[in-house]
Design a protein that fits this description.
Helix content is about 15%, strand content about 35%. It has one helix spanning about 40-50; strands spanning about 10, 15-20, 30-35, 55-60, 65, 80-85. The longest helix has 12 residues, at about 40-50. This is Small ubiquitin-related modifier.
């Protein structure tokens, strides 16, 4: 029996996955993205939705920081994977 893929295809055959972006406060925002979409686009969209500059946020997947040019395909993401978001904190004395 063939294994079912968690990828969703639209009418043009483009593959999408659903990602859950979870902030420090526990709020979740769900995104549907193409496998080839750079994660920088998702990061900017999330920052716009919560009303903060994207430069103040850090996005992690599997404990590793996500770069803007990486795609879900490069990161081996699957449907319903979780991206964690943290506010950057600058240390002091």
């Amino acid at each position: 029996m063939a294994e079912e893929s968690s990828k969703v295809k639209d009418s043009e055959g483009t593959e999408f996955i659903k990602l859950k972006v979870v902030g420090q406060d526990g709020n979740e925002i769900h995104f549907r993205v193409k496998f080839t979409t750079p994660m920088g686009k998702l990061k900017r969209s999330y920052a716009d939705r919560i009303g903060v500059p994207v430069t103040t946020l850090r996005f992690l997947f599997d404990g590793k920081r996500i770069n803007d040019d990486e795609t879900p395909k490069v990161l081996s993401m699957e449907d319903e994977d979780v991206v964690e978001v943290y506010q950057e904190q600058t240390g002091g004395r």
